């Protein structure tokens, strides 16, 4: 399934991983919001944890078609996501993201905290109340 990516941390434009992974490989980047998630502080990067009532700010990134397969694999590695591996830090899930410009919902890949990580964050983590990692 080819979907855009919703990014909310180091992959956002202007951040270090955007330059390393996305620059020159995207067709479109536009502001968006992920409902039903809360942002938590991480060690140098944030985690989105699925929780009702929260909203996370970020960007919807549409990859160039020719870059998509390689980019998907690279982002899975960056996010330490291995399907079915309980040691994964994140899970890649398809969720509805709202485009800020027109309010339209778009299905996108989102890396959310894996279950064990999410449980630790809910118990002892520091939420980012604004929903925006940039402050």
TrEMBL record:
<feature type="domain" description="Gamma-glutamylcyclotransferase AIG2-like">
    <location>
        <begin position="5"/>
        <end position="134"/>
    </location>
</feature>
<dbReference type="InterPro" id="IPR036568">
    <property type="entry name" value="GGCT-like_sf"/>
</dbReference>
<protein>
    <submittedName>
        <fullName>Gamma-glutamylcyclotransferase</fullName>
    </submittedName>
</protein>
<dbReference type="Pfam" id="PF06094">
    <property type="entry name" value="GGACT"/>
</dbReference>
<dbReference type="InterPro" id="IPR009288">
    <property type="entry name" value="AIG2-like_dom"/>
</dbReference>
<dbReference type="InterPro" id="IPR013024">
    <property type="entry name" value="GGCT-like"/>
</dbReference>
